[in-house]
Fold this sequence. Notes:
Radius of gyration of chain A: 21 Å
Distance between the termini of chain A: 58 Å
Strand order of the largest sheet of chain A: 1-4-5-15-10-11-14
Strand content of chain A: 15-25%
Oligomer: homodimer
CATH topology of the largest domain in chain A: Rossmann fold
Amino acid sequence: MEKKIPYKIYLEEHEMPRQWYNVRADMKKKPAPLLNPETFKPITEDELSKVFCRELAKQELDDTTAYFDIPTEIRDFYKMYRPSPLVRAYCLEEKLGTPAHIYYKFEGNNTSGSHKLNSAIAQAYYAKMQGLKGVTTETGAGQWGTALSMACSYLDLDCQVYMVKCSYEQKPFRREVMRTYGAKVTPSPSMTTEVGRKINEEFPGTTGSLGCAISEAVEAAGSQEGYRYVLGSVLSQVMLHQSIIGLEAKAALDKYGVKADMIIGCAGGGSNLGGLISPFAGEMLRGEADYELIAVEPSSCPSLTRGTYAYDYCDTGKVCPLAKMYTLGSGYIPSASHAGGLRYHGMSSVVSELYDQGLLTARSVTQTEVFEAAQTFARVEGILPAPESSHAIKVAMDEAMKCKETGETKTIVFGLTGTGYFDMYAYQKYNDGVMENFIPTDEELAVALSKLPKVE
Amino acid sequence: MEKKIPYKIYLEEHEMPRQWYNVRADMKKKPAPLLNPETFKPITEDELSKVFCRELAKQELDDTTAYFDIPTEIRDFYKMYRPSPLVRAYCLEEKLGTPAHIYYKFEGNNTSGSHKLNSAIAQAYYAKMQGLKGVTTETGAGQWGTALSMACSYLDLDCQVYMVKCSYEQKPFRREVMRTYGAKVTPSPSMTTEVGRKINEEFPGTTGSLGCAISEAVEAAGSQEGYRYVLGSVLSQVMLHQSIIGLEAKAALDKYGVKADMIIGCAGGGSNLGGLISPFAGEMLRGEADYELIAVEPSSCPSLTRGTYAYDYCDTGKVCPLAKMYTLGSGYIPSASHAGGLRYHGMSSVVSELYDQGLLTARSVTQTEVFEAAQTFARVEGILPAPESSHAIKVAMDEAMKCKETGETKTIVFGLTGTGYFDMYAYQKYNDGVMENFIPTDEELAVALSKLPKVE
Lengths: 456, 456
């Protein structure tokens, strides 16, 4: 007999995964290696350890170990907000009148407000274990900076965040959350780094960019004894840590004997999507099960749907290793969009390779249709979603409506990565009917793509 | 053998209480009745039903029925965010180095961000059942207005919120959350009501007050067919609905065989405190157990610790019924404080009577010490608390530190009513070291208290 599915499936504490899952281990064709930005040769652990701390460099390069033990200290931290609930969206199903069963894995139930905390605590922990004094990073929308501030505060580690100047000024609340957690937040470009001073001189009055903030954070880490740089997305180590999302989601479904048909996640750099789909993609790779995996990206920044699969720089400043990925070109500047967390020119190399192998499909959606879905969801499900997460909501609703037409009872699972409390300017624009959509032309995309690095 | 206590105790869905508990039923000496503001005689159900909907008027006046069934529709809504977790504050205990066991009942895990939703959905439901078109209310800090907007949106009920003008302008994000949920938000005083126009004429450029907003909301309800006024605190019906907080907390403790020594809640109008302590006070009243119950209020608005127990108006406009309560006088204007939800001149009549009978003690704390506690809590427990909730955190930490001195292993439970995402201006002031404390002088308090209504 089928067990009645509760509104929220909470795993018990002891059911929380004890290991992260590295999907690369099950890939016959591995993602292409990271390249040293100076030599264009595969980067070594030693080279990478100058930027990242040693243990993370190891995780980054390891594509054969399937499972990594989650250290007890990280598990203890996870216990403050995990296992996160897998919610059956009964109210949304009723609102849509669909026979589909909709579930979402909710990662917004912690102060950082998003899934970013899963990797932030891991990266901060390994930095602490290495005896480092602190870490540096950049933040745009602010979710990653917030998460890292929390994690560092917990471990008593110094945290220096370079926040894109326009966000620093337009999102004062994000800044204050980070300060409340003891982080030092510097508007970028700043006068505290060489690259920052240079940019300020060259472009007086500039409000900054993510690319510039990355360059400043990397420089700041390199110029201080006992510091390393950390990053909240794109990297394989991040996807490894975020696999806890998918592992818990799968465990919760298994507990009630539910088989998912479709897994949907929003995709910027790929940290949430990669983490969510990892165990499901693993089953597909091992030939154990089949799922429809869907990445959803904003039409303003369509790296999977309209980008090129090639080696590219991960940052605008070209100081980080190169990765083979679906990219729009590291010089591509996405039009202003409220889903700041999805405004990245490239995509995780693991997600890119899975996409290239056909395990994953991708769709792009416009901003206004995303906010329309967000509002519908908020009103019936009682959670105010982040604009990023709402990309997944939109496609989940589309799929549920298709089921209504065909009468199919598909089981749809999507990732609700975070809450929208700090995105109310965007909601205001939508409420006021003045939100615009941005879809780059082929010509616009061609410009940045023409400047990809020439890698043999 | 003692069961290992997890970080978060989640009750199963089927363990969620099916009834609200009305502590008045167990009180030998009942709270004094509400009085008709025109006749000063105990108000009747019919009179009260002109302001509130019928079922809520009944609940308001019923001081003998101990348990009220929670309607299935409300239970279904509760299931979207309840049972809420009872969290064992292991990290805070470690940080303080205390032998005390600290637990908090966390009510911020829903989009409204606070416990207010527990009563909002109940009040909206009974309005819907009565066939009403909509409800009106006022909001200051915005937690109640947000909660009511969500509840009304869910039930497809019109929601009109009169928001104190200075909050409307200073808290645009709160306003946008309400609009996202479809509420009509009007800055008060407005030109849409008689009382609003009168106040605007009398005090050009005024930024409004809670008292004025209440008067506008009551007038708006009375002047539209099929509308009633609703209120988020102070009332006995609200305390009834909020009893779910205490019932769940007690069920969670019982599940692990834990006996609380001390229950601590912040107190503005008494909705959270009353709900949290209800079942514990009930046991005390029936002679079954003993607890130390502590109300925490801001030193800027010390109704229990420095007020008078007397009949007073619940609103500044004097249109609502009178209640016997601990009050600072309905004309008392608390100094600006960031804990907007605690800036109320009076106190729930049930909480007041329990306090008068000695079942409850009270303490007042200053703003800066509250934010200091909030920051410590946020850094180790990973939840950014609302300023209101942080009043309880402060006293819980004080008590835990006393245990450290005496070596006692007391079990401390406090109510964490909500999150501080919309209170970052206050955190900013604290972070910048420019937050001030407000403690009224005896002379200042005497002014408003001298104007209490003369009731026989």
